[in-house]
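Question (not urgent): is this output format expected?
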Amino acid sequence: MPSLRVLTSSHFKVSVPGLTIGTFRECSGLSMEFDVFEWAEGGNNEFVHHLPGRMRYPYLTLSSGMTDDQAMQTWFWKTREQAELKEVIIELKTQDAQTRRAWTFADAFPVRWTGPGIAADATGMANESLEIAHSGLKMG
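Got this back:
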């Protein structure tokens, strides 16, 4: 049985065409699921048919990050007037800058930004987080 190697010092690099976003230590929302329709066939009480419905994607949440650039806030504020849909690429990078895995999100736009708190964490950095809505996920 192959062993699972834990990456002890990795981060997520966020790439958006035309924007410099930064790196984050945590990423959630890397999932997709189908709605399931249940159909109880008349006259047959032994089982229920399960049929696939729409594909659903949760918001992508990037946290424990910090950027020097205002691009993330600028992109976020554009959503107020009209969402600027972008392709977002998330890469899991190791300490030696090797890409371990990458995910691409289509028609993405930011829906929530949280700024750094007053207290810095153990590494001495303040943290920002960003939630992004999107219409699809491609793994590669």
